[in-house]
Design brief:
The chain has 294 residues and is of the alpha+beta class. It folds into three domains: 47 residues, Uridine Diphospho-n-acetylenolpyruvylglucosamine Reductase, domain 2, CATH 3.30.43.10; 111 residues, 2-Layer Sandwich (Uridine Diphospho-n-acetylenolpyruvylglucosamine Reductase, domain 3), CATH 3.30.465.10; 109 residues, CO dehydrogenase flavoprotein, C-terminal domain (Enolase-like, domain 1). The protein has twelve helices and 15 strands. The strands form four sheets. The chain has a five-stranded antiparallel beta sheet. Strands 11, 12, 13, 14 and 15 form a five-stranded antiparallel beta sheet that branches. A hairpin with a 2-residue loop joins β6 and β7. α10 runs antiparallel to α11 and α11 packs antiparallel against α12.
């Protein structure tokens, strides 16, 4: 029987005050070190014996990593908790899918402790923040011993628990570009219970010009080894007049692109069935919201 209440392994605790100091520790200890902030994912894995880091680098006391700037797009510090995103009226109005994703995250306690950076770096295929941020064209700003680089969030994920981050890099910020035109977005999630991880989640972001969809991104979670853009489905919508059957056609194409598995939360068959309905509804909702720029 696994004891999930205590930490049995020994580790050294480090508490840097700056990003530079954090990078120094990561460079010194490499893959023996793990970054911890809210700890909502890492501590659970340590308690279950899945991870046994020799060093915990606690970054929560680095104020430069916690910010939410809503000017010319959106900038989110990696330590920003979901609770702050959920409480932002600006995000609710302009980046509605991200607001809805933050609202869907587990309990209030997890929203307060859990950070956007942690949710992304944990690289769960079911991460709630990933689909809307990818749909909005976000980039991850990474800092390491060799300097900084920006990676499209779409390319940030490699597979379950794996990202392009090297052991000597830290995610410091997520950058969402400013949109021109009428933007509408939506996020839908299906889970066993409200506090559970997603069986399927989907985010849609659309730019509308009258009755024409000028641009569109559709991103799903928990249906592949990493958050997935369904680009063939997007192509059905882009530069086309939106009709009553458009969302249905795009959703039918989308389920041909996903690769769900059967696990403890759901079956692959069920994920495909429910994904088709969710994608259709999310497209319709984003389209209607784009009419008023929401």
């Amino acid at each position: 029987m696994i004891n999930t209440h205590i930490l049995t392994q020994e580790f050294e605790y480090l508490e840097p005050k700056t990003v530079e100091e954090t990078v120094k520790y990561l460079t010194q200890y490499g893959d023996k070190a793990k970054i911890i902030a809210g700890g909502t994912d890492l501590l659970v894995q340590m308690k279950m014996g899945k991870l046994r880091p020799g060093y915990l680098v606690h970054i929560s006391r680095i104020p430069a990593l916690r910010f939410l700037i809503e000017e010319r797009g959106l900038r989110i510090g990696s330590l920003t908790p979901f609770r702050e995103i959920e409480r932002s009226q600006g995000i609710e109005k302009k980046f509605t899918a991200l607001f809805e994703a933050a609202r869907s995250v587990s309990s209030v306690q997890i929203k307060i402790a859990g950070t956007v950076g942690g949710n992304l770096c944990n690289a769960s295929p079911a991460a709630d923040s990933a689909p809307p941020l990818i749909a909005f064209g976000a980039k991850a700003k990474l800092v390491g011993i060799e300097g900084e680089r920006r990676v499209p969030l779409e390319d940030f994920f490699v597979g379950p628990g794996v990202t392009v981050l090297s052991p000597r890099e830290i995610l410091v910020e997520v950058e969402v570009p400013e949109f021109s035109g009428w933007l509408g977005s939506s996020f839908l999630k299906m889970a066993r219970v409200s506090a559970d991880m997603a069986k399927v989640n989907v985010a849609v972001a659309m730019i509308r010009d009258g009755n024409v969809c000028k641009d569109c991104r559709i991103v799903l979670g928990s249906v592949a080894k990493a958050p997935l853009r369904v680009k063939k489905a997007e192509a059905i919508l882009k530069e086309e007049v939106y009709k009553g059957t458009t969302a249905e056609k795009a959703s039918l194409q989308a389920v041909q692109e996903i690769q769900p598995i059967t696990d403890i939360r759901s079956t692959a068959w069920y994920r495909k069935e429910v994904a088709q309905v969710m994608i259709r509804d999310a497209i319709d909702l984003a389209w209607k919201r784009a009419e008023r720029g929401a």
